[in-house]
Amino acid sequence: MVRLRSPQVEENIFIGLMIASTFIVVSSLILILATIFIKGFPALNLDMITKTPKGGYYLGKEGGVLNAILGSLILGIGATFLALLVSLPLVFYLNLYLKKNSKLALAARFSLDVLWGIPSIVYGAFGFILMMFFGLRASLLAGTITIALLIIPIMARSMDEVLKMIPFELKEASYALGATKLETAIKVIFRQALPGIFTAILIAFGRGIGDAAAVLFTASFTDSLPYSLFKPVATLPLAIFFQLGTPFPEVQQRGYASALILTIIILCISIFSRILSGKFTKHTIK
Amino acid sequence: MEIKTHISVKNLNIWYGQHQAINNISIDIPDKKITAIIGPSGCGKSTLLKSFNRLIELQDGAKVSGKVLVDGEDIYDPKVEVTHLRKKMGLLSQRPQVLPVSIYENVAYGPRIHGIKDKKKLDEIVQRYLIESNLWDEVRGRLNSSASKLSIGQQQRLCLARGLAVEPEVILGDEPTSALDPLSAECIEQRLLELKNKYTIVLVTHILRQAKRLADYIIFLYLGNLIEHGPAEEVLNNPKYLKTKNYLEGKFIEEPKINKELNLKRTAYPNNFVTAKLALGDLEFGHIVKIIVDNESSAIEIPKAIEHEGHKILEVRKLNQNDWEIVVQKHNGGYVI
Known about the structure:
The complex is a heterodimer. Chain A is an all-alpha fold. Helices cover 74% and strands 1% of the residues of chain A. In chain A, strands 1-2 form a two-stranded antiparallel ribbon. The longest helix of chain A has 34 residues, at 7-40. By secondary structure, chain B is α/β, with parallel strands linked by helices. Chain B folds into 2 domains: 5-241, Rossmann fold (3-Layer(aba) Sandwich); 260-329, Translation Initiation Factor IF3. Chain B is built from 12 helices and 14 strands. In chain B, a hairpin with a 2-residue loop joins strand 9 and strand 10. Residues 333-337 of chain B have low confidence and may be disordered. The chains are: A mainly alpha, B alpha/beta. The interface between A and B is medium-sized, with 27 and 32 residues.
């Protein structure tokens, strides 16, 4: 008797599907990088990263985007730091102090999941209303706070998943030696979770520095370098948005160059934090 | 020989949600001896052990009633500082769980959190307890490398050193050799035998030969009930009750089929014994009667007297605060269920 669906055929079909998915992911990354590189590289020069926009043409066809580079870095790092201040205590509370099926933990995790899904333009609008309420104008501070709100769910939920994976026996071992919950959290759990926490921070930072919609109303845009918390600040995503939106091909090309710079920044921070996390985690239990 | 009690359990009940894991256990654990808790899996051995350092409280839904006295002090008293209690109770768990720090820091962790900051003193402590747990020679050159890189047997000895470094009075072992290779297991057993001069050791084990090798005192649990306890010699070689005997012989443990139930509450010894004796007289050989009494002296005296009559005591068990259950089989020359 002939078996039409032999296990081997089935296996091959699914392996084919898996390979196709992997291919789509990898190739789209390569395509995006290639596009940015091909279109942006010719316009990339030292001026781009050392000068502010100059030479008219709306956003300038000369000079550079140093204002946006610095603005994005300050805003991204500031927001990541703010988000970390909220996320770390939150996830330790969820995982060490609350019982597994506590209502509060359930509510907190549900809120984070919903917040994760809210579009960043809504965060921008919310940040704007908040800003108005406190009498702030579009500024570095308002942008930082809005981006922090945007990335808290991402950071906290990723860290939460990491802490959930910590074996119960490890906590037990620490408690059994007479350690308090706080000592256990700081000296044991934190160390074991450090690689995951680094990754969570990185994901959140990448999301924060790359977001345009949330800073559109709250941080606004400026040609000058950031110099005050209470003054508007330029950011790379908005610079790209404005540059690509102009009718001038020269400026559009500079938009791709800006995108290339943003990508390189994220890549550098990625690699840097990997190296850093490797240094801190040589004792981690695999 | 006068035996000093170190841990005294009184009417201990433990529930996980609706499930009762420990059923009204009262027992005294002797000082500076190795006490082995034996019994089939799921009988509450680990639960009982973890109630001694209140780790049981960390389990979701665990509820404890009753008392555990350590050095005469009830550890479930709200005034007791739990960290202080746990410092007194070193734990060796089933799988060694090293901390994600260096070998040195693993041992120094406990003393550090209990306030020792002096580097020289810490060095001394680390060396002393690594020697005591027989690990020093293997790790002296690489104290700063990761503890997680050690072999599993070495990790367990490191856990022992880490536990000893906080200077406990009791060592609780939750099947501490079950994940280890035979050589490492023997090494741990050897350490425990040496340590029993200084520490009270309570050991959960499902390896009967290990209990035979190590234990001075045996506690046999079955389905959350304390079935039998006593000096190791007696319990292992000459068990009093049927369930213990079956377990030791590797036979299936089942509840005896009760032919008659006799409620002798509110009667005193020897009146209740006479009633029981008459009831036994009416039974066929091999049939089983369950007698319930409500005072401890009857629970001690009736089994003795009945045994003297030539019948077989299958089990004597405390049911709750007041009541005891005595299961007797009318003698016909052997165990028949």
